[in-house]
From TrEMBL:
This is Uncharacterized protein. The chain crosses the membrane at residues 107-131. It comes from Candidatus Methylocalor cossyra. Pfam families: DUF6384 (PF19911). Keywords: Membrane, Transmembrane, Transmembrane helix.
């Protein structure tokens, strides 16, 4: 710095400031910027440039540096004009592009991570939702087009082979028609329901059993009910059980006339008149055994049993 100051002193009137003087002027400006208290007291108070130059000269002398007046003048003028101060370029496309390029590592990393996250999200959606839903829809379409119509045709053919013309066959034709309409409408749930009813009808037609009056000790063979709607009346029932040819219990669908509930049971009460009830009761009281215990028979291909006693066909599930 001292050498620079000496060379500057030997050339008092240069045509253009040499690079060394320019660098020294920049150092003066830098010194002014860092001496915040000095700038506040001198420049902000609008005192004379001469006083400021003297203070600056003292700062440099304390460091063993001699600075010419013209360099001090250049430094003070540069500080006032903000000549060496950095001024960011005005907003614009060029600046935006330049900033994007400078910060490319940061935003490219974020972009890559974001794209990776989106890819993982889409992959998870495809694996856990989209593909399973596509498979489900394809399976449902196949079910509607092939499985359900074929199954309903099969059940209807088996029912036709079992049932004689009459109520059972008419019910089967009605269910098959409703199932076909549901298939045409694309309603798989309704088609499945009609298929289930066809199967239940076919299974009922396939059943064969004998209804026998329960005649075991300590088990009722008949009961009566007093209906809530008419306390002076009585409803009489004979308790029967369904047995196959080997005497094994058979589970049959029975609907209670008291609450409309349907259940698969092997034992239930069948509605009879009082005379039939009294006759069965007397038969059991005679010797504890009901001699005529065969109440009816359900044959294969028929919907309902043929009854050996007068009955409305009404039934109860509990007593």
């Amino acid at each position: 710095m001292a050498a620079v100051a000496e060379r500057a002193g030997r050339d008092p009137n240069p045509a253009a400031p040499p690079l060394d003087e320019m660098m020294l002027a920049m150092d003066v400006v830098d010194t002014l910027r860092h001496a915040e208290r000095l700038v506040e007291r001198e420049l902000a108070a609008d005192q004379r440039d001469l006083e400021l130059k003297e203070r600056l000269r003292e700062i440099y002398r304390s460091q063993g540096i001699e600075v010419p007046d013209r360099v001090l003048d250049q430094g003070v003028a540069a500080l006032r004009e903000g000549r060496f101060a950095y001024r960011p370029p005005p907003p614009g496309m060029a600046r935006t592009l330049a900033l994007l390029w400078v910060r490319r590592r940061r935003w490219l990393t974020g972009l890559v991570l974001g794209l990776a996250g989106l890819a993982a999200l889409f992959a998870a959606y495809a694996v856990f939702f989209h593909w399973p839903e596509q498979r489900r829809q394809a399976a449902e379409r196949q079910e509607l087009v092939e499985v359900l119509p074929r199954s309903m045709r099969g059940e209807l053919d088996r029912i036709r082979a079992l049932a004689r013309p009459g109520e059972a066959l008419a019910a089967a034709e009605r269910l098959a028609g409703a199932g076909s309409a549901a298939v045409d409408a694309g309603d798989a749930a309704a088609a499945r329901a009609r298929l289930g009813e066809l199967r239940a009808l076919r299974e009922l037609l396939e059943q064969s059993y004998v209804l026998r009056i329960v005649s075991r000790p300590h088990q009722p063979s008949g009961v009566f009910r007093i209906p809530a709607a008419n306390p002076r009346a009585r409803n009489y029932y004979v308790i029967v059980e369904a047995l196959d040819a080997q005497g094994r219990p058979v589970s049959v669908p029975i609907t209670s006339e008291e609450d409309g509930r349907t259940a698969q049971v092997t034992r239930f009460g069948v509605r009879v008149d009082q005379a039939t009830y009294d006759r069965v009761r007397a038969d059991k009281l005679d010797d504890g055994i009901i001699q005529n215990s065969r109440f009816g028979e359900k044959r294969r291909g028929e919907l309902r049993p043929d009854y050996a006693f007068p009955t409305t066909g009404g039934a109860i599930l509990e007593w």
